[in-house]
Design a protein that fits this description.
Strand content: under 5%
Shape: elongated
Radius of gyration: 20 Å
Order of helices and strands: HHHHHHHHHHH
Distance between the termini: 45 Å
Number of strands: 0
Length: 225
């Protein structure tokens, strides 16, 4: 697979994914609130993935960047000494964050599908909620779905991208194996995706008119002429 071409396809889909149609009988409250939350989550997710799937997207993102597994940093004198070497440490961080970005391509459509299928018991409370209220609900409703879909891809990407630094560290470590690193990267990436979506949600709530969507603007404040 051409990773660059595949990523371009995901980015294009994220930028062009249509927002859900406004129900014909919508009024202030009820359906309109639900539609506004769905549009808010869709747009927030589009923007988050557009940033994270860029080159070095995870590595350069302050809310999504993946750090080293704590078990690896404390896994023996030789491994710790290697990780104190700036070159090795940076290569390891780059490897994990690139693997997360490659695997995140598979997470994007799963997130979009989840948003389309979500139900909202109290949409009005989400509209009036905190800056990441809708993202928090999305994370709870998805459970382990992002981790499950990304886990195989993270493992494949770690092996494909590794220039030898990961194997070198694992040989020097005690009680740390490849699966632990794979799990750490996957779970950290999933948390980073939700944080990135939440950041975009908060920005849209702060400037609903700037979202360019009349439903979002109407429900979250102001209107588009």
């Amino acid at each position: 697979m051409d990773i660059l071409l595949d990523r371009r396809g995901v980015l294009a889909a994220a930028c062009t994914l249509p927002l859900l149609a406004l129900p014909g009988c919508a009024s202030i409250g009820g359906y309109l609130f639900e539609d506004a939350i769905r549009r808010l989550l869709t747009l927030s997710s589009q923007r988050a993935f557009a940033r994270l799937l860029q080159e070095n997207g995870f590595f350069e993102d302050e809310v999504a960047r993946i750090g080293l597994p704590p078990q690896l940093e404390g896994a023996g004198a030789v491994a710790s000494a290697l990780l104190r070497t700036p070159l090795v440490r940076n290569q390891m961080l780059q490897l994990m964050n690139r693997a997360a970005a490659d695997a995140a391509e598979a997470a994007a459509p799963v997130v979009y599908d989840a948003i389309r299928g979500m139900s909202f018991a109290d949409a009005a409370s989400l509209v009036r909620g905190g800056p990441t209220a809708a993202t928090d609900l999305l994370e709870r409703s998805m459970g382990n779905a992002i981790v499950d879909v990304m886990f195989p891809g993270v493992g494949g990407a770690l092996r494909l991208l590794d220039s030898g630094v990961l194997n070198q560290l694992l040989r020097a470590a005690t009680g740390v194996d490849f699966g632990l690193v794979q799990r750490h990267v996957t779970e950290s990436a999933a948390r980073g995706i939700y944080r990135a979506i939440g950041r975009e949600e908060a920005a849209i709530r702060a400037d609903p008119r700037g979202a360019g969507d009349p439903v979002i603007a109407s429900v979250f404040g102001g209107s588009i002429s």
